[in-house]
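ok posting inputs for the zinc ion job
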Amino acid sequence: MLKGLIFNSIFNLSRLIPLRTIKSITSKIPLGFNYHAVSNQSLPHLKGITRYSSIGEFERHVVFLKENFRILPYPEIRDYVLHGKSLPENPAFVTFDDGLSQCFSEVRPILLKHEIPCIFFITTGLIGNKRLFYRHLASLCIGIVNNIDEPVDMLTEIGRRTGEKIKSIKDFSKWARSVKFDEQDKLYKAAESLGLDTNEFLTKERPYLSSDEIVQLKRDNFSIGAHGIDHLDMKHATADEIRREIAGSCEFICNLAGETSVPFAFPFTSAGIEPALLDEILQNPAVDMFFDNRGIGFNGLPLNRMHVDSHCGKFDPDRFIKYLVLYNLLRQRFFTL
Ligand SMILES: [Zn+2]
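and the output
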């Protein structure tokens, strides 16, 4: 309720504030725009857990960004963060996380057409559709449950197998969206009850990039970064698990993309990870620098990005960019939204 009011107020504010005012506030800060997928299709592994931009909407975003900001390629960001080189006015950058197949089929042609640089952060365990990300499994399960006419018996069965209180479709959706990394076996139990064959989905739909597609993105002059092996939620992980997730995925991407070092973007966020551990991991020659998801500017070691997908679908690009920046500035200053 309060959240809705705040969103609406920021939405209204974004109409009144000119873009030049926003740009004057952020003129020296690289604004990171972080996407996951772009598609005109209803993607069953995403639609239960997140929004995403249509192809037209994404194209309007990036064209607007190109006209009003200086979109940086990764080497310029790297030089700025690691070597203190100066940036042009109104710097921005575009990234995609997770390594979904639409990065190649839908995003790549638009970026090439408008000559827009981008960093693709890949979850290495998903490359080639070897397995399903559990959040995507949650979305698939929600889609199936929503289409069951008489779901009570099925939900009772899932509740019994998972030990969760699930009495309605709403309960199920809420639970499936909130499942944490270390509880994902419960989602697999639910999927089994629902008759969902995850291997068949992976083979038929091919939701993730292949190695060949990633190599082609690199040949196209885009930058490839790492986003973990398993998309681990590091908040509750051990130091060894965090080392393996970061260094292991960076080393994998180095080998695949023919690089000596690559950047790493935290799955979820870096919240709760000891800065000293991150400092230590940065000594690994395969690990270049860190990107996070907590809004604008630096948050300790990592360079932040704004989460675009959850806000897309509403406005023209001018208002959208203003809204997104305002929302993140206010959120970081005053709220935990
Ligand atoms: Zn991710």
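notes: The chain has a mean pLDDT of 92. The pocket of zinc ion is lined by residues 97-98, 227, 231, 267 (CB under 6 Å).
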